[in-house]
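Office hours follow-up: a student asked to see two folded examples consecutively, so here they are.
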Amino acid sequence: MGKKREEKLQEKKVEAKEQFEKSEVSESSGEEGEKSEEEEQPAQLEILKERLAETEKQNKELEDRLIRLAAEFDNYKKRVAKEQNQLVKNANENLISKLLESLDNFSRALDSARNSADNKSLQSGVKLIYSQLMDILTKEGLEEIRAGGERFDPHLHEAVLQIESDQPEGTIVDEISKGYKLNGKVIRHSKVVVAKKKDGSTKSSESKQAEAKDKTGTE
């Protein structure tokens, strides 16, 4: 009997030991699970932050692109409006260019009529027509280019002749044909005569002749 009790007691000890070991294993595995979850949370948060940053970057790029497209479209509209406005302004350029010759003829007729006292009525009539024609063309944007006494400008004038003059070199001394602008654009250059320096040899010969006359008079 005593031997059986000892065996049962020994079995209970073994069972108690096994249960204790099992409880320790269970507790350690639970702690490891908690640690694993705590480690996974920061990693997931970091991933979410990276995704949020990438989304914000993409949104910023799309916003910048939209702003650029809006600016380009606005510039395009302004450019088209400017081109259309310019086309409207110069729509009658060919017609007005053809009328310029008639305008020149009226001007010449006025000059001729001024020299004759018998043609006062003709002068008045031609002057009236000239004024009316000029008014019409001026309203269409026509503008005379100033020439006489002005400094020669190749963008406005066409030099057909150069003559020696007391005027500063490059000064326009005469206008052969008027030039015109249409809405600020040159459609015909003024044909002009431009001053140039007098020849130095001519000056020296003239001074020599003057000196010779002075000597003759003295003698």
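And the second, which I mentioned at the end of office hours:
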Amino acid sequence: MAFNKVRVLVVGLALVVGAVFPVTASDNYDDYPPTERFKIRFGAFFIGSFDTNIRFDSRTVPIGTVIALEDSFNVDSSETVGRIDGFFRFNKRHRIDWTYYNSRREGHSIATQEAIIGDPDDPDGMDVIPIGAEVVTQWNFDLLKLGYAWSFLNKRDYEWYIGAGLNIQSVDVDIAYTAQVTNTFSIEQDSVNTKANIPLPTASVGGRYQMSDKWQANMRYELFFLEIGDYGGSRQEFLLNFEHNTFKHVGFGVGLNLVNMDFQAKNDQMRGKFDSKLSGLLGYLKVYY
């Protein structure tokens, strides 16, 4: 629901910009040089909320149990991670952007309900985690974003752009469990691991507003809906930040980041579905010239 409102807001702003500002190329740019031709941000992403659901399938077990990692397996629901992003501007019209961060979460729990996990490496095609089993879960996620942006309106006080790029996402999930076999004294131990590198094209729209000589606000919205080979799904992201040019080439910033991901995979490394929602705050140091 929140992302639907964001989408409506961004589209509405774009329509207002198209209606209010000039459409001829000569009027969309002024004679002021870009304040920032190059910018790199070093900081932290304070993720205050994770909501991750995952389902493992196999060829013999097409539908596994949907597992809420934070609720069912006690996987960390918050995390602080390092983050680096920035851009290089060729001129007032064209630039390239990049972002990288990763997530390393784990959980220890006692299973309160039976879970069927499809496992392509298992002869039976699945593992069954029984009630009462001790479960250890490891969630690893890496994100590298590379993109191009075209500023169709770029003046000293404001800028609007559209862009396209590639989000390369690496997902690695490991679930290990230990359980006592019913009516025996034997112990059953097993683990399931699934991993995939998912390259996804994205489209984006964003803008900048120069509030003063020192302060600026930046907004960016990314959207993806597509199926490529064995992968498919959607991804939405909204970013809003405020930056202060404290010194000649050094400044500081804070922001808000919302992400909503929903993916499916059907290959030998990963078969199943996962969706993840996260939200958090950004704090960073920026270097620019």
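Two things to take away from it. The first strand starts at residue 38 and ends at 56. The first helix runs from residue 2 to 20.
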